[in-house]
Amino acid sequence: MENGKVIKERRNDSPWKKYGGFGMTAFLVIVGAVLIIFILLRFDEFSEVLSKIFRAMSPVIIGIVFAYLMNPLMNVFENGMKRVFYKHARKITRAKKICRVLSLILTMVILVSVITVIIYMLIPELTDTVMGTETTEGLVDILPKQSENLREWLQDVLNRDSKISQFARETFEKAAGYLEDFVNNRFIHYTSDILSYIASGVWSVFGIVYDIIIGIVFSVYILLAKETFAGHAKKIIYSVFKRRRANAIIRIAKQCHNKFTGAITGKIVDSIIIGVLCFIGMMVMDIPYRILVSVIIAVTNVIPFFGPYIGGVPTAFLILCADPLKALYFVIFLVILQQFDCNFLDPKIVGGSIGLSPFWVLFSCVVFGALFGLPGLLLGVPGMACVYMIIKEIVEYRLKKRGLRTDTDYYIDADHVDEQELVLVDPKLDPVKISPDEYEQRIREENEALEKETDEKAEEESGKKSDKKISDDDK
Fold first, then answer.
1. pLDDT greater at residue 114 or residue 135
2. Among 14-23, 44-53, 340-349, the least confident range
3. Where are the alpha helices (H) located in 182-242, listed in sequence order?
4. Owning domain of residue 193
5. Is residue 395 part of a domain?
6. Of 110-114, 361-365, 439-443, the least confident
7. What is the distance between the alpha carbons of residues 389 and 257, in angstroms, rounded to a whole number?
8. Which residues contact 411 (CB under 8 A, 6 or more apart)?
9. Residues 390 and 444 in one domain
10. Contact, 122 vs 291, CB < 8 A?
């Protein structure tokens, strides 16, 4: 609205606009077909260009991800500060800026503190796990003993059957010969390659650290001016699309934002609770490596469906090296904990923010995980939820335009649809459904109105004819 009046969009209904739209559509289709053919013919060069662009944009992408993750916590602090600062502020704009800066600083301090505490707790635990303490043995001491016990057990099993023992000796001799040949003849040739891989790996680590640092700087600027970026995006959308379509795009974008925010925030809270419960359960059962295992379980639980297995297998093996019986207790406890998470905790916390069946959750994890790796596993489920929501809205809108039902249960056992069951009240307006009784009543009223209009026209024509006949008689 502008000065209390609704801004009306100027429309140009000239035929040149219609034909120009057809011509532009045909031109874009031809250009798109040419680009697809070019990409297929030069796919390697095209993928290399995309990888360069992605590498150049990686700090920005990391900054956007950090800003998106920090935004919910920052909003909580900012809304709380506004209730206090706005009551005593002389200028609302200055108070708003102060709340934004203070909430951002507080969010960064909390995140850095949490990461520092986790690292401070994990490093001693990891050191004790590997090296051991004065009272407990570490993996350095446990693994040789376990491997020796395994070797003795295998030797005892092989000695019971001469055929198996002979086959195992021949296999071990071949493996030992191949390993000796590899070390003496081939390993020297691969030394330079191994050193180059190590150097490239170290350089990649420095590159990742650099991208994370620059990404944090980008996230600060994004969070400070997030409303401005949102306004720029809306300006572009309204400048490109018609108002009705632009409103639909912005509405769907808000719904996708809510799904991503709800899914990510809910899953993080759920994983923290699962980690705390895992630590308490392991402490009650006196299972070793409590802190390390609980952190691994909490972090991997963020990944839907496959997370419990990704974190459970290595942690169970770690406990197995120390105490096989407690490893069995841990596996049983972990299964119960994950069932509690899947059937009670996760639906309560995440709730309807996802809105996907287990089939689509598994589908999104498998497909997006194969395409994009770990980011696909983390973001595949909310991304699939957004795609599912958009397709559902398009399908339901087109069904309503055709006067059809939108509930899925109606189509499960249906082999045909009654043509007069659902109709449109006004095709120019938003589609509205009416019942069969309302439809029959509307048809009856329309027929009665049509008959009445026909009778009135007949009476008018008969009256005109009678007046004409009287005038002719007078003449």
1. 114
2. 14-23
3. 187-224, 226-240
4. 55-132+179-224
5. yes
6. 439-443
7. 12
8. 405
9. no
10. yes
Residue among 340, 258, 329 at smallest CA distance from 293? 329
Any domain includes 281: yes
Place of tokens 């207790």: 329
User: Could you tell me where the DSSP H helices lie in 241-289?
Assistant: 243-284
**363 and 253 co-located in one domain:** yes
Burial 144-168 (b: 16+ CB within 10 A, else e): eeeeeeeeeeeeeebeeeeeeeeee
Question: How far is the C-alpha of 195 from the C-alpha of 435, rounded, in Å?
Answer: 76
On whether both 207 and 302 belong to a single domain, the answer is no
User: Average pLDDT, stretch 394-409?
Assistant: 76
Q: Which residues pair with 113 in a beta bridge?
A: none
Measured from the Cβ of residue 103, the count of other Cβ atoms closer than 10 Å reads 22
- Secondary structure class of 475 (helix, strand, coil): coil
Partners of 137 in the beta sheet?
Answer: 132
How many helices (H) and strands (E) would you count in the chain?
Answer: 16, 0
Distance CA(257)–CA(64), nearest Å, equals: 13
Domain boundary among 353, 369, 401: 401
| Total domain count, the chain | 3
212-226 burial code (b ≥16 CB/10 A, e <16): eeebbebbbebbeeb
Q: How many CB atoms lie within 10 A of CB 365?
A: 21
